[in-house]
Amino acid sequence: MQYQISGKQIDIGEALQVHVKEELGGIVQKYAERPTDAQVIFSKSAHEYVCETIVHLSTGLTAQAKGHATEIYAAFDQCAEKMEKQLRRYKRRLKDHHRERVDPVEVFGGSSYILAKEEGQDEAEDATLQPMIIAEMETRIPSLSVGEAVMQMELAHAPVLVFKNEKTQGMNVVYRREDGNVGWIDPVNNEA
């Protein structure tokens, strides 16, 4: 597994890097059979250290966790505990599925846009009803089953996930509802 360990405006020592590789490597090997890479980013927020970890698995799924503490090692340890819990749940769900994914998840390219807030627009812009694009980025759209999409959304702590449904080959959306349940949008394709 490849590691990318960095600090935002803080120096990361060799001892911390070795600790991260040993601890995270042990956790990931225990619950994920074929991890590809891990990103660990340390930063400081006021008096606390923050550790953010993202692990990419060969199945195409991504797990991420974040930890906060007054000491840098404690922040990583808290983050590692959360990562272990996520990967344990992920492995249990994979065992519960009727089929295990042998091939990696197919991923398609797409565009992601950030739109400006409406409150700063003047009357001329409001008349056109066209929001102003302030950023454009590439995004990845995975080809998943509905169950895998829900699992990926939960692993990423995302409120919504757009994916290509492996069964219908159509674009679908799963999202977290206000009542705590998960919603699924499966548009009907009416071909003329």
TrEMBL record:
Membrane-spanning residues: none
HAMAP family registered for this protein in UniProt: HPF (MF_00839)
Pfam families assigned to the protein according to its UniProt record, in alphabetical order: Ribosom_S30AE_C (PF16321), Ribosomal_S30AE (PF02482)
SUPFAM superfamilies named among the record's database cross-references: Ribosome binding protein Y (YfiA homologue) (SSF69754)
Location(s), subcellular: Cytoplasm
Residue ranges occupied by any Sigma 54 modulation/S30EA ribosomal protein C-terminal domain in the UniProt entry: 130-183
Molecular-function GO terms, alphabetical: ribosomal small subunit binding
Protein's UniProt keywords contain S-adenosyl-L-methionine: no
Family of this protein: Belongs to the HPF/YfiA ribosome-associated protein family. Long HPF subfamily.
Entry function: Required for dimerization of active 70S ribosomes into 100S ribosomes in stationary phase; 100S ribosomes are translationally inactive and sometimes present during exponential growth.
GO biological process: negative regulation of translational elongation
Keywords attached to this entry: Coiled coil, Cytoplasm, Translation regulation
Record-given protein name: Ribosome hibernation promoting factor
GO cellular component terms listed in the entry, alphabetical order: cytosolic small ribosomal subunit
Coiled coil: 73-100
Subunit structure: Interacts with 100S ribosomes.
Gene name per UniProt: yvyD
